[in-house]
Amino acid sequence: MHATGTVELDFRLTLTELSRGCGVEADRILLLVDAGLLEPTGADPHEWLFAASDLYRARCALRLQHDLGINTPGAALAVDLIEELQRTRRRLQLLEALFDRNC
Amino acid sequence: MDFKDYYALMGVDRNATQDDIKRAYRKLARKYHPDVSKEPDAEQRFKELGEAYEVLKDPEKRAAYDQLGSNWKQGQEFRPPPGWDTGFEFGGGHGDDQRFSDFFETLFGQRGFDSAGFTRRHAGHAHGEDHHARVEIGLEDAFNGSTMAFQLRVPEYDASGRLSNRTRSIQVRIPKGVTDGKRIRLAGQGAPGIGGGRNGDLYLEVALRPHPLYSVDGRDIHLTLPITPWEAALGARIAVPTLAGRVEMTVPEGARSGQRLRLKGRGLAAAGKTPGDQFVTLQIATPKAETEAHKALYRQMAEAMPFNPRSHLGG
Predict the structure, then answer these.
(1) Interchain proximity A102–B26, CB inside 8 Å
(2) Mutate: best of B96, B154, B215, partner A, most A CBs <10 A
(3) Residues 6+ apart with CB under 8 A from B185
(4) Which of B40, B77, B255, B300 has the largest count of CB atoms under 10 Å?
(5) CA end-to-end distance (rounded Å), chain A
(6) From CA B20, how far away is CA B13, in angstroms rounded?
(7) B150 at the A interface (CB within 8 A)?
(8) What is the ipTM of this complex?
């Protein structure tokens, strides 16, 4: 059993950390930033900080690119739509649960 | 070992062209991609599809596979005939570190770790791999915070370069007030560094298990509370369950079914953040008229209380 690690919530990632977390070189991440999928804060790539959610957006886009052969803007659009779909499904699930309990 | 009917898995004929196979793959990949699909077995289907495509898109592998003949059925017990692959040469790397079935590996050998394997890419000193996992926790654990043990499956290459899953136990302190979908980073809890390099990090995505009483919306908690008609009509003080235990709540006089009351600050509360609320939706439960006395009471109400709930319907 490993000892309890230091837990970070709402963490931010540098370009190097994000690239490592996605298992790709930084140039692949730069393409995702160019496509508007990721919006780091900071003036230039050395100062960029990405939100935790960007790690998941980037990994999803890279999987879609690899598995479905779609280009970067297409993957960015797909990630936006998938997130929208997930939000809608969560909302629907909540409303259905409330509806069922109120009936 | 089970035979894999790659043509059936891809839904194409044995004489399909390379273009047919590519089109079938693209279509099914969109359908079963785990990021997109809601099918319960999407991940498994997508893996099988990837394996089928790996064989059928490659003319050498496809020809070798075809040589096994068309009498095999999906799932049938299979042993390759001796010398079946004579005259075929299969290319090296297969692209990524996904693991294929024993059937695939028996026919075509292991996937090419030398070209894709991350462990060998780093000679000398290197940062360990980051690991990612999704963990499910109960709502009570999210509300109170707790230290929980999780079993993570970690893909690992052994000394001979074979990929296998090792189970690893880890204790994680789930912070109080964590919400569904929250991401947690555990620095240094990923794969060990190589040659003195730093360990990778472990990223966890927290999912809340559905709760029998409560529904959760971000930090807010929703509860449906059944009340009697007389509690609704006259008002009442009622003990309501919350994640922190029962609290007294005032049901106002003349309360309606579906009316929502708020218990401020009784939702999930993370350090340094405004706590969520608990919303209580009232549901008036009508007692059954089971005895003559009950029926008499209802009749008395009908006479004493002129009430038409359908007046707005014109009836």
Answers:
(1) no
(2) B215
(3) A7, A8, A11, A52, B201, B202, B203, B204
(4) B255
(5) 46
(6) 9
(7) no
(8) 0.85
| Shortest alpha-carbon distance between residue B29 and chain A (Å) | 7
- Buried residues in B50-71 as b, exposed as e (16+ CB within 10 A): bbbbbbbebeebbebbeeeeee
Q: Could you say which of 2.60.260.20, 1.10.275.10, 3.30.460.10, 2.40.70.10 is the CATH number of the domain covering B215-286?
A: 2.60.260.20
Q: Nearest-CA distance from B250 to chain A in Å? A: 20
Contact map slice: B 251-280 vs A, CB within 8 A: 258, 270
Residue owning tokens 């649960």? A97
Q: pTM value?
A: 0.75
- Class assignment of domain B126-208? mainly beta
Residues of A in contact with B132 (CB under 8 A): 21, 59
Name residues whose C-beta falls within 8 Å of residue B128's C-beta, 6 or more positions apart in sequence. Answer: B190, B191, B192, B193, B194, B197, B198, B199, B200
C-beta atoms of B50 and A3 within 8 A = no
Which of A5, A20, A23 faces B187 most closely, judged by CB atoms?
A5
Q: Does B283 touch chain A (CB under 8 A)?
A: yes
**Is A11 close to B183, i.e. CB distance below 8 A?**
yes
Listed by start position, the domains of chain B span: 6-116, 126-208, 215-286
Q: Tens-of-pLDDT digits for all 315 residues of chain B?
A: 788 899 999 999 999 999 999 999 989 998 899 888 888 888 889 999 999 999 999 888 898 888 887 777 777 777 776 666 655 655 444 444 456 787 887 777 654 333 333 333 445 678 888 888 888 999 999 999 989 888 877 767 677 777 677 788 888 888 999 999 999 999 888 888 888 888 889 999 999 999 999 999 999 999 999 999 999 999 999 999 999 999 999 999 999 999 999 999 999 999 889 999 999 999 999 999 999 999 999 999 999 998 899 999 986
